[in-house]
Amino acid sequence: MHEKHLYEYAVIRVIPRVEREEFINVGLMLYCKRQKYLRIQHQIPSEKIKAFCTEFDLELLKVNLDALVNICEGKKEGGPIAQFEKDERFRWISAIKSSSIQTSRPHSGFSVDLNQTFEKLYNELVE
Question: How many Cβ atoms are within 10 Å of 11's Cβ, its own excluded?
Fold first, then answer.
């Protein structure tokens, strides 16, 4: 029997116009403490974002999403927060913010294959 691992995930969202509170799912982050697993992935659906806000800065969005990846992956380019432990990085990225990039509240589940679970959630919630 395969061991099930408790995981948490948060959906990364872009809010083209914060005052309207409309969002587009652009990424996913999944964390499992026991497996020391932290993974993030994103995409930028340019046409969908521009439909909400024609003047939205897609280049700046890419810079900011790539910064989240650097933090999540613990890269030097991610600055001091990237040097935190994985759970602290997950909590920092998924903390409530009022900016054009936000995350859902963390959700949890059990998985025997974290990569497969990540792919399934990414396809369901982002693609």
Answer: 21
